Amino acid sequence: MQGNQGQQEEFLRAYDAHADAIFRHCYYRVYDRERARELMQECFMRAWQYAADGKQIDNLKAFLYRVANNLVIDESRRKKSSSLDALVEERGDEPLDLPQVRDDGMAPERNAEAGIMLQNLEKLESKYRDVIRMRFIDDLTPREIAAIVGESENVVSVRIHRGIKQLREFL
Amino acid sequence: MSQVEEKLKALRDELGRTALSAEEKARGREMLVAFMAMKPVRAREAVDVRQRTAKPFGFSLFTYIAKPMSVFVMVLAAMLSVGSVSYAAEGALPGDALYPVKVSVNEEVRAALTVSAESRAKWDAERAGRRLAEAETLAARGQLSAEHRATIDAGVRRHSEGAKKRIAEFRRQADASMAAEVSAHFEGSLRAHKKILVALSEETTTELAATIDAETAALVAARVEAQKDFDAETSKSVMAAAENRRRAAENKINEVRSALVRVRSRLGEEAVVEADARLVAAEGVVGEGNAKLEAGENAAAFALYVKAQRMAQEAKLLIRAKANKDLRGKFKLELRLNADDDEDRREEKKDENAEGDDKKRHEGEQADDRDDDRDAKKSEDGVRVQVPKVEVRGDLDIKVGR
Q1: Alpha helix locations (H) across B107-234?
Q2: What's the pLDDT at B230?
Q3: Backbone angles phi, psi at B171, to 5 degrees
Q4: Cβ(B51)–Cβ(B63) below 8 Å
Q5: DSSP state of B114
Q6: Do A114 and B19 touch (CB under 8 A)?
Q7: What pLDDT, on a 0 to 100 scale, did the predictor assign at position B173?
């Protein structure tokens, strides 16, 4: 049955290509590695369920990001204190240490810098923050972002620029 | 590149180090494979055509085009999945293949199965209500064509006739309580349906609204007539009927209260408050009835209890419409009492005029100065005659809080 098998292969290819990115995408919203991994898993399974129900997916990559976003939103509703803000509040003004998967002895100041940047990102309005994240952290093109959020490329570009402007004020 | 963008890029490089370990990723892949094996893509009736289209995002776009299933197959599927055609027909609307089954089979079977005179009368009223509900669903979808309107209109008239006949039969058998029960239920429903229809689409529902008005007027006229007979009857039977109606009104209000609790999450804060205000108003009317009963004015008490039941029934259907996911977002339905106050008051004034005139007739042997008094009142405001009724309105105002 070509249809089913073909789709499965497509999905596995998407997993190989995007699992890391989706995991990161979730991690930098929930700040919990284990949870992020579960969310990534659930994202792919839900996307498959959607396809298995016979529904059409035009753009699998965009769809996966959309599903991931929804899962993260549900998550944040369930656990209010998972946001970076809350973590920051707990720690006071110290910049966050970034968790490391590979301990390759990175320069500590880079770590701190990045932590500050993350905090600044959290101060942005959510609509700017989301596109900035997708552009600079997830490395998605404006066109891809447009497909994920359901806005035109223009709107996305404008938001990216406004977000950068706001960030400039924080620095 | 601006400083900000540089910093963001640096951030990305840092964050890029956060990744799944090889084992984590492999494990995830296995889980996905197992999941997909468990839930294969559902077989569709026709051939899947996979199209490889352009690749703007660096990977293939995957589209499936499937042939729509024929109506026959869908009906067959419905039958197999829920077990019977008649069950599947319940949701049918004018224009659907199964609509005739719903109306001519299901509803007729139910009619044949109802035994008590009360149930039969209520079923007739219910069928008229079902037609109006179909109109509402169609209106919400923008599918209330002239043809469908005609079908529904005919149905409403037919079943209203049936209900009215049975109500008249109750009255002929001097069962005022039963007549009032069915009449209150039906009248409340009609009033609610009219509001819902108009809120959904004023343009397409004018004829149906007119039909509802006509049927409502007929019910009101019959009610007023019956009330006159009542006034003339002996205390005892009237009192029994009034007690009966009080219980009915209280039960109805409680029933709607429970329903409101169940759907409150679907309604939103404002609607819940407004719905509650309606029930409180109905309770107020019951209170007035109680006062009348205590004062020995049984007929007046009877009328008030019947009114309270009507109000509760209307509230019930409005709440249901508001909570209905098919209608949600398609209309702005005001649950607020004041929005329709005038209509009801107009009816009441008509009633009062009728009652006032009758009272004059009945109390013809009373002292002349009392008549003069009443005349003076009448000429003053032209409509109000009964002082107690004024209190009723006053209470309603207070309860609604405006």
Answers
A1: 107-113, 117-141, 146-172, 176-200, 206-232
A2: 76
A3: -65, -40
A4: yes
A5: -
A6: no
A7: 86
Three-state DSSP class for B50? strand
Q: Mind telling me how many Å the CA of A166 is from chain B's nearest CA?
A: 10
B19/A20 CB distance under 8 A? yes
Q: What is the pLDDT of residues A87-96, one digit of tens each?
A: 545 444 444 4
CA distance B259 to B216: 25
Can you give the pLDDT at residue B116?
84
- Asked if residue A54 lies in contact with residue B40, where contact means CB atoms within 8 angstroms, the answer is no
H/E stretch holding B65 reads strand B62-65
Q: Which residues of chain B have pLDDT under 70?
A: 1, 16-17, 43-87, 233-234, 338-402
Stretch A27-47: mean pLDDT = 87
Cβ pair B273, B213 in contact under 8 A = no
pLDDT of B65: 26
Complex ipTM value: 0.75
Task: Tell me which of B14, B33, B38 to substitute to probe the interface with A (most A C-beta atoms closer than 10 Å).
Answer: B14
The one-letter amino acid code at B365 reads E
Using the predicted structure, report yes or no on whether residue A53 has a pLDDT greater than 80. Answer: yes
What is the torsional sign of CA B217, B188, B160, B304? negative
Using CB atoms, pick whichever of A7, A45, A117 lies closest to residue B32: A45
At B16 the pLDDT is 66
Q: Which of A5, A24, A145 to mutate to test the interface with B (most CBs of B within 10 A)?
A: A24
Task: Provide the token pair at B89.
Answer: 């027909």
Distance CA B276, CA A79 (A): 33
Q: For the purposes of burial, counting CB atoms within 10 Å of the CB of B166, is it exposed (0-12), middle (13-18) or buried (19 or more)?
A: buried
Considering chain A, what percentage of its residues have pLDDT values greater than 70? 78
Which A-chain residues 95-134 have CB contacts (< 8 A) with chain B? 98-102, 104, 106, 110-111, 113-114, 117-118, 121, 132
Beta-carbon separation of B8 and A136 below 8 A: yes
DSSP-assigned letters across all residues of B21-48: -HHHHHHHHHHHHHHHHHSPPPPPSS--
pLDDT (tens digit per residue) in B161-199? 999 999 999 988 888 889 999 999 999 999 999 999 988
Contacts of A99 in chain B (CB under 8 A): 18
